[in-house]
Amino acid sequence: xxxxxxxxxxxxxxxxxxxxxxxxxxxxxxxxxxxxxxxxxxxxxxxxxxxxxxxxxxxxxxxxxxxxxxxxxxxxxxxxxxxxxxxxxxxxxxxxxxxxxxxxxxxxxxxxxxxxxx
Length: 118
Known about the structure:
Layout lengths: L15 E3 L6 E4 L3 E9 L4 E8 L2 E6 L4 E15 L4 E5 L3 E4 L4 E17 L2
């Protein structure tokens, strides 16, 4: 098993598809696709590609740390009690444990993620 993992941003395999939990949905009709590509540290570190169609949801990280790199699309993320930031193709950001806010997908977004769970 190699310790060097290449993340495929356009995977040929079928993704896991999902909808937001009803209590997280704010507006629109977003749907999600996830192409999990690696797990490490007893499944506490997950890496892959995630895609969302336009809509607005509550984002609550709890104890999760997440690094994101936008491959395509446009999102606005509004931190509760803070400012709204816009991210588009080529941008990267981190959502730290305790983050609470609103995730608005303006244009279908695809991102590479690395999530670290407690």
